[in-house]
Amino acid sequence: MPVPAHPHHLQLTLANGLRVSLRHAPRLKRCAAALRVAAGSHDAPLAWPGLAHFLEHLLFLGTEAFPATEGLMAYVQRHGGQVNASTRERTTDFFFEVPTPVFGDALQRLGDMLAHPRLAMDEQLREREVLQAEFIAWSQDAEAQHQVAILQGLAAGHPLRGFHAGNRDSLPVPREDFQQGLRGFYQDFYQSGQMTLSLAGPQSLQELQALAQHFADSLRAGPRRLQQAPPALMGDDNHRYPYLHKQQLHHLIACNAPREALEFLCTWLNATAPGGLLAELQARGWASALHARVLYLFAGQALLDIGFTLQPQGSQQPQAIEVLLNDWLRFFADSDWTGLREEYARLIDRQRQISGALALARQDSENLATQVSEPHCQALKNLLNTLQSAPAQQAWQLPPGNPFLQQAPQKQRPGLIRGQTSAHRGLRTFAQDRSRGRRELPGLSFSQALPADSDEGALYLRWQLNSPAPCLGTPLQALQTNARQAGVELSFEAAGNDWLLKMSGLHEPMPAIVEQLARDLAQPDLWQQAPSSPPPQMAIRELLKALPTCMADTGRSADVNASPDLWATARWQGLGMGLPAACEMAINNATARLPGQCAESGHKTQPINGQYRWQTVATDGNEAALLLFCPAPSQSLADEADWRLLAHLAQTPFYQRLRVELQLGYAVFSGIRQLNGQTGLLFGVQSPNVALAGLLDPIQAFLKQLPALIKGSEDLGNTTLAQQFSPQTLPTTQAAELLWQAHLAGHGADYLEPLQQLIQTRTRQHLIDAAQRLNQAAGGWQCLANGAAVGAFQ
To answer: Which positions fall inside the Coenzyme PQQ synthesis protein F C-terminal lobe domain (predicted)?
Structure first.
């Protein structure tokens, strides 16, 4: 057995040629698998564009051993996990994350669907219509078409310029030669020698290796197949070109450099610190954002995309912006990277320290080095020297070190007295509480529902304003970036007059982040005028974005006479979770300097019991899209348990009925959504060829069938669902969101345990009664759609 380079990471090749990456991370609460097939859209026969993407879809349609209702997607979703797949230019990825006890069963389903697809003709014809619907949406999506236009400067023969999504015309399913091409592609590439399996979880390396071996035994063995090298990205005399369209300017650079070197360059090119390229462009009023990324990399070819979001003045200065870009690149090439390499290593290490199981597995499937080596640096130097030879003219500065990445001295964990263990944490004595020496804030509390003996925690802060919050300014965007690099995910959400800050990840840098937040919120230029309109998203995503504001504004209107100083009358409350005592005290001290008044009580969303409400949201394109949100009749834990079980039972049958059987659309989903402490069932559909009435009617018909579905179900899923709410198995981010919503609903810190018990003990009759109340709109029905009201909402 090969000796691992890291004591918790092992890479090996099994006897049948399957390459395996195993990562043992004891801190993880879930397991994940990422299976990469070395074949993508550019490997498919030229005669059948989209064939690789089509096959990816077909593999999820079930096998003889595991039909679709028992296949990987349904199984993972039933156990509260996440699952997806992606077809790229030269790879196809399948990945999922689940609780540890069901990891082996999920892996078995993944192996079975890869090894034994049915590829039945009727299923192919149905699934082709799904790709046709996706193609229509893709062709109407402004951002997708923008990405196509960016690549038109490449060499005409390069496959990046081609169409690879697949549609009704490019996938002639009934033709024999197409079937031969489909099966031939599957035979060539979907075998062990063409695959890499990455597993990540809390199990030992030996346990993970046993799971990998069992998975490998289910695959068809085969040799590694070389993928054909593509033609040159650009002509012999060209290696870069600009693309300008409205407020977007892109510089595309073709090169031969390793991904590690290019990612290193992009990190510092994207930096927001003073003295950098973005800061200079913002100071001149030319650009509001810069995003550099590796757009493509295969067989020694790399395509770097440096994109600028332009201000009106910048649209008239594309050549001047290119001059500044070249000048910065020359400056960077001539700089000493020693400090940046050390900072970059800390950044990568911090991201691995905080990544969940799925992120770790997917990172390992990329097989990238964790440090920028001397050869990487030399390759990058060579690239930069070919781009710009003249000395830099501008007085640029390298970005300073991220203050949140600096390692604080290790301190003994507070909160335990002699004789205590971590199991006693939360049972602090009165003397210990007094010893913290902090001034308690009335609206800030710290929950002991999550153990404080890990490195992770969460903090939620919510402001209630008298008017809708304007757009975020540059200071908070920089704070977000620095926090993310330090292992803390920081997000800001506006819903009506509420402004919510979520912070989750490593708790060590959190007090310093809150201190910087307090300073940033005090800046006069914090809020900015709304930037140029972002490219419209697909309709269903626009509706999802509008839903929180819609529900927050129910029964409430903004104060038209609000003070221009947003903080003058602002009230805020907060909740910290999973934080050790010293961190709680530091956060308490830092939040005392936040603007607004810390207050115990917050705004409660007004119930809409018995009401049918409709809100029209303008979206781009002409496809019909609809969301139906059905709140529980009350905020009691019994009602929440009923609603969660209904969602658990309905998820797979709803998808099967509307997407597979009725083929209403490609965006079909259902599940639980919590908004401002209010638990509700959410159903969503987007269709390219069915009007809104044709979307609402099948949803209502499905809801009417729920009592019969409950009566006919052998297993209501009580145990499976209840297990998903254990603090010991919930990832910190998910547990924190549940506890925050419970806090808003008025539940105590012990919310998870009684919720588990109620879910476990709900009977068939409880659910039948709940389904009847759902159909009677006992908690109300809120519909968001991109058209006028239909049906019962008229």
So the answer is: 456-575
